[in-house]
């Protein structure tokens, strides 16, 4: 089958007609599948709209053409849908998870996350996946009969487990949570609605996770080129990108740098999508899963890069780490952004009356830890722009972040 063609529905796809349902039972939609309904709820959520002004790498006012969390999420969804279509799994569920994967990110990207994690260290820390779960299960206030979006079980497990199991079958933390334990939000919610944290997620969720990697590798290169942090020829230090650039130069001699970079990004995305498709096809042929539950209970992920492509992708991440994420220009802005978040947290902690009225209500009876978590939830929902406006309101001096 051609990589660009849609595959027939696979037996291992999540079937919307056999969804495990929602925590709060609802009548079915007359016009949409449960997974399409989930996707629409994410798109219409307040948290999704806020992604428009949340940092990917560059703070929103550094330029109109850099990625934000919103444009990044749309690009992840496009790549994820392409893979879902080729592998015959549910596109609506895949799109839901691609669009929802960054809902828990605070302002200023990973800098904001580091700052909030430090501020909440004594209260369980901050984890953006756990925050995304809070957003869709409680923090969104749009429906009269429940808090959150009341997404299906399949969407919730995908938000939490798209990077793999969180625990052993015994319940002991595993993987990245082995040392620090499960994030508070995930551990608490799982007591209410068991997401089977010990198993892998659906193929749709695994696809969304790899689409995220592909999107930010390729598009961070694009943004880094636009920002002048490196040039196209600097990417020749990696064999994969050197080969792609040489091919572009053969086909289009004398091509200007902007188009040369754009062509590189396109070819890189195509290369990674093809690699994931081929490796997934190979693994599925060996594993022969006959249901979505077989995918969850398999002893390894079924969506992956082949080993040689995983090395290529790791080399790109290492290049971006050195030349972009740790570039002095970016680091100066991110250090200042971290301080903005720390200042806001400490101000609200000492003067809770500075919070909006709806975030103060009920806080008098809370423990200090619960109040701190409430403050963290408020800050995590801020856009970059709103965080700076709040900082200007509460402090005499606010960094420019440029």
Question: What features would you describe in this structure?
Answer:
The protein is mainly alpha-helical and 402 residues long. It has a domain at 204-322: putative deoxyguanosinetriphosphate triphosphohydrolase fold (Orthogonal Bundle), CATH 1.10.3410.10. Helix content is 57%, strand content 0%. It contains 17 helices and no strands. It has helices at 34-43, 46-50, 69-87, 91-100, 109-119, 128-139, 153-161, 184-192, 203-227, 239-251, 257-287, 292-296, 307-325, 328-350, 357-360, 368-380, 384-394. The longest helix has 31 residues, at 257-287. The protein is globular. The mean pLDDT is 93.
Short description:
Residues 69-217 form the HD domain. With 402 residues, this protein is mainly alpha-helical. The chain has helices at 34-43, 46-50, 69-87, 91-100, 109-119, 128-139, 153-161, 184-192, 203-227, 239-251, 257-287, 292-296, 307-325, 328-350, 357-360, 368-380, 384-394.
Number of strands: 0
Strand content: under 5%
CATH superfamily of the domain at 204-322: putative deoxyguanosinetriphosphate triphosphohydrolase like domain
Q: Oligomerization state of this entry?
A: single chain
Secondary-structure element series:
HHHHHHHHHHHHHHHHH
The level-1 CATH class of the domain at 204-322: Mainly Alpha
Distance between the termini: 49 Å
| Regions with little confidence, pLDDT below 50 for 5+ residues | none
Structural class: mainly alpha
Task: Provide a count of the helices.
Answer: 17
CATH architecture of the domain at 204-322, by name, is Orthogonal Bundle
Q: Major sheet: size, sense and barrel closure?
A: none
Mean pLDDT: 93
Helicity range of the residues? 55-70%
Q: Tell me the CATH topology of the domain at 204-322.
A: putative deoxyguanosinetriphosphate triphosphohydrolase fold
Rg from C-alpha positions? 22 Å
Q: Give the overall shape.
A: globular
